[in-house]
Amino acid sequence: MAKVERIREVLSEPLSSEYLKQKAEAGWKPVAVEWQRELPPGVEPAGTLVEDVPYGLRIAEDGKRLEENPAEKQALMVMMEQIVLDNPLSIIADELNRRGFRTRNGLNWSAISVFNMLPRLIDAGPQLLSGEEWIQRRRQLVLSQPSPSEMRYPQDRPKH
C-alpha cells in the first residue's frame, strides 16, 4: 500500500476555487470536509458524544473502524505480565518506563496511570490472553520464576 501524507488546515477565510486548484496542482486531494456554524442562543449541538479510542487500538486509515496499535498492545502485554507476577503498580510503571513505553500523552508511566489502565486491561484481557503471543510469554514467565521450594518468604530471612 502506498504511503499517504495527511494534513489538517484551519481556514482563516472562505475556501476558494483558486486555493483548491493550487492544492490539486501540488498533488493534494480533499478526503473530508468539516463544517462549523454558530448556533442560536439556547440551542445545543446535536451528536456531541465524544469517546477516546481505547488504549491498544487506533483509528484505521479508512476512518470507519478501529485496528490494533502495536506499541500500545505491547505496553498492555507488559502490564499483564507484571500483574501475573503480582508486582505492585509502582514496579509495573517502572518496568514500562525502563522498556521505553510512554502514556498517550508522552509522559512516563506512574502507579496512578497504570491503575487507570486496569479497566482497559479487563476489557482487552480476553483478546490478549487468548493469543499465541501471550501463550509464549506465559511460558517464559513460568520458566523464569523460582520454584516454590526456592522462594524465600519474609519469615525465612535471616535476622540482623
Q: What does this protein look like?
A:
The protein has about 160 residues and is mainly alpha-helical. The chain has a domain at about 70-145. Helix content is about 40%, strand content about 5%. The protein has helices spanning about 15-25, 70-85, 90-100, 110-130, 130-145; strands at about 55-60, 65-70. Strands 1-2 form a two-stranded antiparallel sheet. A hairpin with a 6-residue loop joins strand 1 (about 55-60) and strand 2. Helix 2 (about 70-85) packs antiparallel against helix 3 and helix 3 crosses helix 4. The radius of gyration is 24 Å and the shape is elongated. The model has no long low-confidence stretch (mean pLDDT about 85).
How would you describe the shape? elongated
Average pLDDT works out at 84
Report the order of strands and helices: HEEHHHH
Low-confidence stretches: none
Q: How would you write the strand order of the largest sheet? A: 1-2
Q: What proportion of the residues is helical, as a percent range?
A: 40-55%
Number of helices: 5
Q: Quick one: how many beta strands?
A: 2
What structural class is derived from the secondary structure elements?
Answer: mainly alpha
